[in-house]
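Folded chain entry
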Amino acid sequence: MSFFGLIRPALFALDPETAHGFALRALKLLPAGAPPAPDGPLATTVAGIAFPNPLGMAAGFDKDGEVPDALLGLGFGFAEVGSITPLPQAGNPRPRLFRLTQDRAVINRMGFNNHGAAEAAARLAARKARGGVVGINLGANKDSPDRIADYAVMARAMAPLATYLAVNVSSPNTPGLRALQDEGALRELLRAVEDGASEATKGKPPPIFLKVAPDLEPADIDAIARIAIEARLGALIVSNTTISRPQGSLALASRDAGETGGLSGAPLRDLAQQRLRDFRKATGGAIPLVGVGGIATAEDAWQRIRAGASLVQLYSAMVYEGPGIAKSILRGLPKLMRRDGLGSIAEAVGTL
């Protein structure tokens, strides 16, 4: 049994948010080795960025940019920190994070809790010389009178520190935020982010990724795909947590299944996979996709890649599998590549 397997009962005896804080503190104690080199058999290039492998840690785990180097040291090809907002905010009242053990799922209604842009920027600036692919996920303050202006502020602050910027308009836990996925608002938002990032980097901004919700209608998918292509985004991240709940024989069985918030983990897998296929069709493969939601094994990651994802991310699965999950998936991917007669990650994208 792994070390995580031994301590998991003790961690699961804690409330999930306390356990998450413990995990962050433990990662801070790890020696920070060199980030993975982008030259192995799983290396791939997306949006002009050389990724050592296609597996990343999704936003939400490291909200304040405290442990990106430790995450890279676990084997992740990239780490996405945030969501970070201009001003510190406490988020929603606790309890706001629920572990659905029977369903291998998580429900959260955190509400962009973080310590704000100034603190995160100082920390990320101090580690930038270490290299490695570190994306920064941008958010807006809940009580902001102008959320688009918040994203522009964040783009100016974070563009010089980020390998890529991720614009998060898909969290279900900030009232009204998902309205920024509407066509007119999204165009204005992306222009503001691009202008802010360009201003801060003297016309050489990092690629901009857009993170979307899985709870979209076909017309929304078509509109977002069209805007993403017109704006020349680096990638679409598909998808965030869902406000829907599986029904019938797939209904959630855990005690906290009735809690409000975004659902992630195993029950999200099929919806996220279908939404990825929808965006692959809507974009015609013209823009890279990052597959997120319910990925827990090498087979899950491989199926998402073959469905059209150039990169994949996870978070909730690490709650159940522990920090060894990245290396486990990365050991499995080359075997699956050989099984299916494919020579690289890029070659595999969209082959199913």
The mean pLDDT is 95. The longest strand covers residues 78-84. The chain has one domain: 3-348.
